[in-house]
Write a structure and sequence with these properties.
This protein is an alpha+beta fold. It has 15 helices and 30 strands. The chain is 22% helix and 24% strand. The strands form nine sheets. Strands 11, 12, 13, 14, 16, 18, 19 and 24 form an eight-stranded mixed β-sheet that branches. A four-stranded antiparallel β-sheet has the order 5-6-4-10. The chain has a four-stranded antiparallel β-sheet with strand order 21-20-29-28, with no helix packed on it. It is globular. Keywords: Calcium, Hydrolase, Metal-binding, Protease, Serine protease, Signal, Zymogen.
Length: 646
C-alpha cells in the first residue's frame, strides 16, 4: 500500500508514511465472525474488496509460500471495547480509571489455552509457527496448507496493472476457535507497507530554503514582487521556532515535565541525538537532559532499500524536534520499526502499549482509505483499545493531499486517522506576529502560481492546488458517539445516511509556507555531511505539535494521563478554548511570497519565485464551527489549563 502522509519541505510531501486500515471496530467489538455452512467461523474482511470474480486469474500454485499472522481476540473482546470507551469518556464513572499493561493483558488478553489451541490447529494443517506474541501467532507454509487451515482457496487476482494473491472467499476458523481468533493477515500479498512520496529527494540529500524571509508573519513585505489579491504580500517565514508555537497554542508556564511522549516511525536516524541537541542550542530551546531522549529499536532492520530507509530520518527528526520545541521537559521515546511494512509498524505500536512506554503517541504516517483492509483494521484497533484502557492516546496526522481527488481521482480520507479510536490531527496555516502574538490561522490548503518571465505578474494566478490538510467523511467507519451533536449532519451523512466518522478532530500548524524550522544532518553536493536547517510542514508537523500540547495538558492535571482524548476534545467544542479556524480570518484572501533555490541548495542554479495562497484546501473548507479541515479548531489560550478541572 502507498501512503502520502508526509512532512512538507518545499511544499510537497516529504516523509514517512504507512498504510493502515479503517476501523472494523467502531467503539465496539470486531464484526469478525459468522458461521458458514461447514460450521466454521468466517473471518469477515479477510477477502480484499479487489479480489472480485472479474479480476480472478485462477488458483495460486499449491507450492507458493505464505507468511501470515493469526491475531488473537483475547478473552473478552466486547469487554475491552466497552471499557476502552468508558475509561475515556469524561461523563463515565470509569473515566480515568486506567489499568496497567499487566492488568489489561490479564483481563482482556489471550489465555494460554487459547494460544495453545491456535498453535495446535495451525500445526495440524501443516503450517510452521514462526513466532508467538501476546497479540498473534505467526506462521509460514505453502498454499495447500494455508487453504486447509483457513477453509478457503487462494487465487491470483488482477489489481490495477499487477497481479496479487488473495483468498477467493473469506477465511474461516474451526468452530471451537471462533472466540480465540480476531482475524488473519497476510493471506493476500498486495503490498502492505509505507512508502515515501516519490517526487521528493530523500532527507539525506540537502535541502535549504532561499530568502528573503519574514522572521514573524508580515515582518518583511515582498515590495518588488507583484501584488496578490490587491495588495503586496509578506515573504514566507523562515520557519517558526518553539517559543512562537508555544505562544500560539497557549503553553503558558507548562513544559511537559514528567510526561512521556512516544514517536513511531520506521528505522532510525543515526544522527538524531546530535541534531536534536544542536537544534535546541541554535534556536533557544531548552537543552536536552541526559536520558530525556531515548530510542527503542529492533535488533535488525529489513527491506532498507525497498523502503528507502534514509527517507525516514527526516520524519523522525521533525517529530522529535517539534515535540521538544513545544514541550521542552517532556521525555521522548522514539520507537523505530524494522521496516516500512504494516506488520513491523504495528509491532512498534504494540511495543508502546505492551510496555507502556508513554501516555501520548505521535504518528505521522498513513495511507488512503481505499487501500485499507478490514483484517488489518481489526488488528490496529485492538492495539488502540488496549492503549485506551491503559491511558495511552494515539495521534495521527490526517494527510497532506486534501480530499485526495487530485492525488487519487477519488474523494476520500486517510487512514488510520479515520479510526474511531485515534485522534486525527488536521492542519492550518499559522500567522504568529511580533512579540510571538497569535494573529490567526486558516485551514491549510495551498494554491501555487509562479512569477512570469517579465517579473510583472503571477502566471495563472492564483494557480493550481498543490497540497493541503487531509479530511472528509469516511466511507467505512460509522460515526463514533463523541462526534454526534458536533459534526454537521451534511458532513456525517455524506457517504451514509446513518452517519460516518469525519476527519479530523483537532488541528495545528501544517502549512510548509508558514512552517517550522528543523535541523538535520544532510549530505551536501561536495560529499560532506553536516548540520543544516530548513523550513518544513505537513500534518506530519501538526501531529507532534498536538502531541506536545497534550503533554502540557497532562502536566496541568498533575501528571494524570489524558488517554484517548477524543471524548474530552469534543466535550470542549464551541468554547473559547479553541481557535475556531476559518479560511478567511481577516475577511480577505491571504497569500505569502516564496523564493526557492532551483537546485535546493544554493543560488548557483538560479531562483524561483512563487505566490502561495492560503486557505484553499481542494474541496474541503475551514468554516465557522466544526469542519473537515481543522476539526474543532486549534488549541487556544486556556486549553491546556482546562485539563486541570478534569
Amino acid at each position: 500500500m502507498r501512503s502520502n502522509r508526509a512532512t512538507m519541505r518545499a511544499g510537497v510531501s516529504l516523509a514517512a508514511t504507512l498504510p493502515m486500515v479503517a476501523g472494523a471496530l467502531v467503539l465496539g467489538i470486531p464484526a469478525a465472525h459468522a458461521a458458514d455452512h461447514s460450521g466454521r467461523g468466517a473471518l469477515a474482511g479477510t477477502k480484499p474488496a479487489w479480489a472480485t470474480a472479474k479480476a480472478d486469474k485462477g488458483a495460486t500454485a499449491n507450492s507458493a509460500q505464505v507468511n501470515a499472522r493469526v491475531y488473537l481476540a483475547g478473552r473478552d473482546a466486547a469487554g475491552l471495547a466497552a471499557y476502552a470507551k468508558a475509561v475515556a469518556d469524561p461523563s463515565s464513572p470509569s473515566y480515568g480509571k486506567y489499568l496497567t499493561a499487566e492488568q489489561a493483558q490479564a483481563r482482556y488478553g489471550a489465555t494460554g489455552a487459547q494460544v495453545a489451541a491456535v498453535k495446535s490447529w495451525l500445526k495440524s494443517a501443516g503450517l510452521k509457527v514462526t513466532s508467538v506474541t501476546s497479540h498473534y501467532v505467526a506462521v509460514s507454509g505453502d498454499v495447500a496448507s494455508v487453504e486447509k487451515a483457513f477453509g478457503t482457496q487462494l487465487h491470483n487476482f488482477a489489481k490495477g496493472s499487477k497481479t496479487y494473491r488473495a483468498p477467493a472467499a473469506s477465511a474461516s476458523v474451526p468452530a471451537g476457535l471462533q472466540g480465540a481468533v480476531l482475524t488473519v493477515t497476510g493471506l493476500d500479498n498486495a503490498p502492505h507497507k509505507a512508502n515515501h512520496a516519490e517526487q521528493l529527494p530523500p532527507p539525506d540529500a540537502v535541502f535549504k530554503n532561499a530568502g528573503p524571509f519574514s522572521s514573524y508573519y508580515g515582518s518583511k513585505t515582498a515590495t518588488t514582487l507583484p501584488s496578490a489579491y490587491g495588495q503586496k504580500i509578506p515573504y514566507a517565514v523562515k520557519g517558526y521556532t518553539g517559543e512562537q508555537l508555544r505562544s500560539a497554542y497557549g503553553a503558558g508556564k507548562y513544559t511537559g515535565k514528567g510526561v512521556r511522549v512516544a514517536i513511531t516511525d520506521a528505522y532510525a536516524s543515526p544522527t538524531i541525538a546530535y541534531d536534536a541537541a544542536n537544534y535546541a542550542k541554535q534556536n533557544g530551546d531548552k537543552a536536552w537532559k541526559t536520558s530525556q531522549l531515548r530510542q527503542v529499536l529492533p535488533a535488525d532492520y529489513t527491506k532498507t532499500e525497498e523502503c528507502g530507509a534514509a527517507g525516514w530520518y527526516g520524519e523522525e527528526t521533525l517529530d522529535v524536534e517539534a515535540v521538544h520545541a513545544v514541550a521542552p521537559d517532556a521525555n521522548v521515546t522514539y520507537v523505530g520499526a524494522a521496516s516500512c511494512y504494516d506488520d513491523d509498524l504495528l509491532d512498534s505500536l504494540s511495543k508502546v502499549v505492551d510496555n507502556h512506554l508513554a501516555d501520548i503517541v505521535s504518528n505521522s504516517w498513513g495511507d488512503i482509505e481505499a487501500n485499507q483492509t478490514p483484517d488489518l483494521a481489526a488488528a490496529y484497533d485492538q492495539v488502540f483499545q488496549f492503549g485506551a484502557v491503559e491511558g495511552i492516546g494515539f495521534y495521527f496526522s490526517s494527510g497532506d493531499n486534501g480530499d485526495e481527488v487530485a492525488h487519487t481521482g477519488t474523494k476520500q480520507v486517510d487512514t488510520p486517522a479515520n479510526s474511531a479510536w485515534v485522534t486525527a490531527v488536521g492542519g492550518t496555516s499559522l500567522a504568529v506576529g511580533k512579540g510571538d502574538k497569535y494573529l490567526w490561522e486558516t485551514g491549510w490548503g495551498t494554491d501555487k502560481a509562479t512569477l512570469s518571465a517579465d517579473g510583472k505578474s503571477w502566471t495563472d494566478f492564483p494557480g493550481a492546488y498543490s497540497s493541503g490538510a487531509g479530511g472528509g467523511t469516511s466511507k467505512t467507519v460509522p460515526q463514533p458517539y463523541y462526534q454526534k451533536g458536533v459534526v454537521p449532519g451534511a458532513l456525517a451523512t455524506a457517504n451514509n445516511a446513518a452517519g460516518n466518522r469525519v476527519v479530523p478532530d483537532i488541528a495545528a500548524i501544517a502549512d510548509p509556507n508558514t512552517g517550522f524550522l528543523v535541523g538535520q544532518t544532510q549530505s551536501f553536493p561536495d560529499g560532506t555531511q553536516r548540520y543544516s536547517e530548513y523550513r518544513i510542514g505537513g500534518t506530519s508537523l501538526a501531529a507532534p505539535v498536538i502531541a506536545a500540547v497534550q503533554s502540557l495538558a497532562q502536566e496541568a492535571r498533575g501528571g494524570k494521563a489524558i488517554g484517548f482524548a477524543n471524548p474530552s476534545i469534543y466535550s470542549k467544542y464551541g468554547s473559547k478554548l479553541y481557535h475556531d479556524v476559518v479560511d478567511k480570518p481577516t475577511g480577505k484572501d491571504l497569500a505569502v511570497a516564496r523564493v526557492d533555490f532551483v537546485n535546493g541548495v544554493d543560488a548557483s542554479g538560479g531562483l524561483t519565485y512563487s505566490v502561495r495562497s492560503l486557505g484553499k484546501d481542494s474541496s474541503l473548507q475551514a468554516v465557522k464551527g466544526y469542519d473537515d479541515v481543522t476539526g474543532v479548531g486549534s488549541p487556544a489560550k486556556g486549553y491546556v489549563d482546562s485539563y486541570r478541572r478534569h
